[in-house]
Design goal:
mainly alpha, globular, two-stranded parallel ribbon
């Protein structure tokens, strides 16, 4: 899970997609937002996994997304290696996440 507005600078967010024919939005940021599942979609995936007997997890790339995913009782969350030094997000997960 990624929050494009948190991960991208304003300039990056507002730039056009580098390959306009592959874009799902008028800017790169809008394109990234279109590709991300929202909280309800993540919750639906978690519920479906429970119905069929599998665990569900996602990667979180930023503090906003970490806090959103804490609203779902995820079985576990993955921290991408690119985020190993994102201390604000890691502190939120350490202090607030109750899973593995």
């Amino acid at each position: 899970k990624r929050c494009a507005k948190e991960l991208l600078t304003e300039e990056q967010y507002n730039k056009p997609h580098p390959v306009p024919g592959n874009a799902f939005g008028s800017t790169y940021g809008a394109h990234r937002e279109f590709l991300e599942f929202d909280l309800d979609q993540h919750r639906d995936l978690w519920k479906y996994g429970k119905e069929i007997g599998i665990e569900w997890a996602t990667s979180v790339w930023d503090t906003t997304s970490a806090r959103e995913m804490l609203q779902i009782p995820c079985d576990f969350l993955k921290v991408p290696s690119a985020c190993n030094n994102h201390f604000e997000m890691l502190k939120v997960l350490r202090d607030e996440f109750k899973g593995d």
